[in-house]
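User: Hello, beginner here. Can you help me understand these amino acid letters and fold codes? It all follows right here:
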Amino acid sequence: MQTSLRLLGRRRFLPIFTTQFLGAFNDNVFKTSMVLFATYQVYSDPKVETQFNAVATGLFILPFFLLSALSGQLADTRDKAWIVRIVKTAEIGIMLVGGAGLLLPSIPLMLAAVLAMGVHSTFFGPIKYAILPQHLHSDEVLGGTGLVEAGTYIAILAGTILAGFITPQQTTIIVLIVAGLGWLAGRQIPPAPPMHEEHVFDWHIIRASITLVNATMHIPRLFLAICSISFFWTIGAVLIIEFPPLVKNVLTSDQQVASLFLAVFSVGVAIGSIAINRLLRGEVSARYAPGSVVAMGAFVLLVYAVARTWVGDHPGELYNIAEFVRHPSAVLLLGSLLGVAVTGGMFVVPLYAFLTTTVDKDQTARTVAANNIVNSGAMVAGSLLAFLLSAAGVSAVNQLLMVAAMCVVSAWLAWKLHLACD
């Protein structure tokens, strides 16, 4: 398998990589700016802050649950490059709404933009994976998937770091410029026509979703892969929800430290994505997945232990980044968080490659869409659970124990997949 970065010099890969990179960057500049703005400038109650983050996360994920069947059908029955151009045009309008929400400020407008970005990502999501087997050689798919994942998390890293240092006015300008660049990159993607003629297109989103999931989940290996991925993203969703209130109220640190936490998580997944590709040497296999997610759970428990014993030096004051990193427990905490992310990336990337290489090319987008439906349903459930636990008085720190328990379930599913396929 070709793992070289030379793929970035090929038109059959670079434009889709760039479009995905810019989209992920824009998503995270806007979402992180919005969450930090609400956490540090609008609300002053840890319970309400966690609940707002859960609502924002749930709204972004909800379109994946409702519309993935439609997006998968479109991606398999229309030219994928044509769909990308429509989606990236819509992004410009969405960012206008989101920017207005930040400037006014207006929480409803910001949440409306988050929901719309979820719709945008729902229709782009199946394409970014389904187009790879169509444009790349078979021995390039895992390498291409790893590069897309690594690029995505580097974009998330850049977006989350930047969001901690810019004003709402600067955020608005940046997201509009990046949306325009994404539109230009999308226009360079080579044609990716459907692999066969489709005679039936079901516009009924509920029926289509049930049909799509049933058509995929009855295959044991895909069922196990999708369930494993779903638990991973549920874990990720809960962690992202908890980070800002955890940093503010437990670690007594400012929004730049919260941005640092999100950034460390993102870069760790990128490292894990590349590392597992090297370990597997191009082979699509789940053999490292169980061990990776067990290690992830152990690192989550370490984060929990450090947070439980954290003592701030100046009660009532928030650390900045320089003060935070000088805290005696900061290095261990950041190292543990990095460990969570690296092992998470090692767990999930081979499973995505598995989804796109074990089905016929004309079914790839719909397989990814079915995966998105199940993933998003699990993530919405995770967001709701975080909301309810917060309402019941369970702290952000104690919710980390739930995350560690979910890692055990993911490890069991990954082991079953390894036995079934490897």
About this structure: The mean pLDDT is 86. The two ends are 18 Å apart (CA to CA). The chain has one domain: 7-194+203-421. The longest helix spans residues 46-77.
